[in-house]
Amino acid sequence: MIDPFGTAAVRLRSPATSHPHPLHPGWPESTPDVRLRDGARLRLRPLLRSDGRDWREMRLLDEEYLRPVEPTAHESWNQAHNTGAWRSNLMSLRDLAGRGIVVPLTIELDGRFAGQVTLGNIQHGSVSSCWIGYWVFSGHMGRGVATAACALGVDHAFRRIGLHRVTATYLPSNPASGAVLAANGFRREGLLRRNLHIDGQWRDHHFVAQTTEDHPDTCVSRLRAAGRIQ
What we know:
alpha+beta, Aminopeptidase
């Protein structure tokens, strides 16, 4: 059996096409590849132990971009991104993924780590929903990476996990994230007052969502039709 968090999981080169796992559908699976307008190949695949070095280096470099939009760290940024923090984060995600609550995915750009997409608070049954979150290394900004990665994540939630609704939030001060979500068909449903403690303060968030009935096709197909991906 392949450990989805170990280096052996790198052998998951193609997306799963068999019937999804009954307890945690959509995990551990990779998505299909898409090609960006500049020709780069992008996909989502399970987060691995071997991603730790890139995760730490990129997030340390991008403190000025990430700190203002992420939950308040109770220690220094360096401490929140040391080897122990990575191991703790991975163990927590491993546990949640095994219970079908979270699907933690790496954004892989031309075979290299470029950020993350997380599908969280997965609920089946009469709720049938999850939220999506993402971050992309600043060195890849402006290429449509976040938009394409979000599309793959939403399609994975609907097509492989089998959910009915996907939600997301973004800060009013972060219109770029709002543009990514709008490009992927999310509609605004409201404003969550003092929703999360971000960078030392309770912050409002725009709340957006989409359901399977909102669009007749996939996020990826809509991006392709709009010329955002090849």
